[in-house]
């Protein structure tokens, strides 16, 4: 805890304030490419070992399965087992921020303003939106201390993603509106930890994290619906295989790049050459701006 205090990780400390157990930040490092130490993938995992909601206390039925609120940290740490076995030529750092979100006489109060490790101030308008707080300090630590060049966050972040996608799908996009809503919801800090809008809860949580990534390449995976099965009350290990595949992914060949293309709307005159697979939103500039692109694949590659 003294090291966390020394690093001024105020958001993590605020979440931990009501707990008897001290917080921890677990750092895992894998250096597989000593010639390219500037290219480092940062994996940031949410490790809330039990989430009561704090003073914004969860209803009793929502307290069930809150032991799984550390699944994001478990996923990023588990992926390191594969790194040790496969020994790919890449560099990866995992940062897992661990704490309870408990309620008690010392717990952080709603509407408290806390200074993050990055120096940005956050008004905590809901103590049950705590995962994004510990992740924000984890992101800053990874950037400032571990010098990561790209970031993936994995977290059981929002109930909203479960309402939207159920227990089989992970993640939703970020838009400029999400970031705007976070900034509009406070007059006394740089950001609120919840949005001024009751819509797009999962995207609002992701937008909060994006404010701390400093324009680095960024992927956020909200696994609140997929981390465990409510009927069996067992973890799924979701995204472990995905991260392992990503960590071991090689540069695309010229043929692969030709077969899979992102084509803007201006290029849609090539209908005879490509078969449409769907549309995706492409992030731009770190401000949540989105651009619609057509995803197409060469017909002959089927």
Q: Could you describe the 3D structure shown?
A:
The chain has helices at residues 2-6, 10-16, 71-86, 131-144, 159-165, 176-184, 201-210, 240-247, 254-259; strands spanning 24-31, 41-51, 91-101, 112-115, 121-124, 150-155, 191-192, 218-222, 228-229, 234-235, 260-263, 274-284, 289-298. With 302 residues, it is of the alpha/beta class. It folds into 2 domains: 2-247, Zn peptidases (Aminopeptidase, 3-Layer(aba) Sandwich); 254-301. The strands form 4 sheets. The protein has a 5-stranded mixed beta sheet with strand order 1-3-2-6-8, sandwiched between helices. Strands 4-5-7 form a 3-stranded mixed beta sheet. Helix 3 (71-86) links the parallel strand 2 and strand 3 (91-101). Mean pLDDT is 86; it is low at 262-302.
CATH topology of the largest domain: Aminopeptidase
| Spans of at least 5 consecutive residues with low confidence | 262-302
CATH class label of the largest domain: Alpha Beta
What is the chains' assembly state?
single chain
Report mean pLDDT, rounded to a whole number: 86
Major β-sheet profile:
5 strands, mixed
Q: How many DSSP E strands?
A: 13
What percentage of the residues does DSSP assign to strands (E)? 25-35%
Total tally of structural domains: 2
Shape: globular
CATH homologous superfamily title of the largest domain? Zn peptidases
GO biological process, one term: proteolysis
Keywords: Aminopeptidase, Hydrolase, Protease
InterPro entries: Leucine_aapep/pepB, Peptidase_M17_C
GO cellular component, one term: cytoplasm
